[in-house]
Amino acid sequence: MNGVEGFMYPNEVGLQWSVLIVLYPYITGLVAGAFILASLERVFRVEAVKPTYRLALLTALAFLCVAPLPLQLHLGHPERSPEMYFTPHSTSAMAMFGYVYLWYLMAVLVLEIWLDYRREIVLLSQSSKGLLRLIYKVMTLGSANISPRSLAIDERVGYIVTLIGIPSAFLLHGYVGFIFGSIKANPWWSSPLMPVVFIFSAMVSGIAGVMMLYMGITKLRKQIIDMRCVDSIAMYLFYIFIIDFSLEMLDLIHRIYEADESFRSLDFLVHTQLFIPHIVIQILLGTLVPIILLGITQVTKLPEIARKRMYVVAGSLTLIGIFAMRWNVVIGGQLFSKSFLGYTTYKMALVTREGLLPAIALTLLPFAFLWILVKLLPPWPEKSGHQPATAD
What we know:
There is one protein chain. This protein is mostly helical. The protein has one domain (18-330, 348-384). 70% of the residues lie in helices and 2% in strands. The protein has a two-stranded antiparallel ribbon with strand order 1-2. The relative contact order is 0.16.
């Protein structure tokens, strides 16, 4: 049972949204951020990040496959979810997610990966044996033409798909912030900056996630980490992080200056129940410390080993901080009464449908999908036909 302090209406005692709804925007944010990182090489021709291009695409796909599962578990009747496709409701932001998700998954991400890997898929369908040969044969979709002219067409079409994918990635995650920001009855959420903050925080988490994956997997493969690539990713992460933090501070300053009737209630909540997750974890450890560490690497010439360690610490704290931000928005926004006179607490169960263990399983599941994707479609230069990365 949740503990209650002060006066709350009967229908406010229990939280409607649990840790699963925290995971949902967190996972979709990683998808959007990973795709944005991939677009740096494909659209903006940032050659330095090329070693992570395919890994970023596969990461985005792995997490996108898991993205709707927290919602499915929360609904309790996942078999009803296809009804939103058969009975469209254009005025519902929640219902529109189904169309945004399907568009981004099939028309953008899967198509771009297929176009980029088509040559390798065709060659693997000819060289593999047994079940793998059949899988690759199906993945060719009957297109075995890998002539230079055909591959050039793939490249042009892939470029256009990536161009379309950038605003689609913003739409995928920005609409999550739109849902929260449009709830006028909740002053913690009701802010026009909410969609923009969600988009930039998604870019931060996705870029940090791919950077950590690249460094970790390369180390496990006993290969040399391309420091030029990692340094470039860290630079983009640093600047986008500053924009994200500036937007959050702008929203905070606006709330303090406006100081409406809900301000005292929210201020009390931040200094009590949300002090650790909001002030300590999100702002201090999850934002300021990574920005400082990344800033040091940008203005000083540190040895390679020192930069690696700072990137690992900054990336880890960034992912924790963005999760804390999602937690504080979803859970924190439900801890106070609509009367601004009472507060409740959230106690997460262990093995229930919306408990800790299912949340941990959903967090680990994308990595299982990514392992399968990497086995089927290796993103490494020596196996994918790309030029080997230059090690520092």
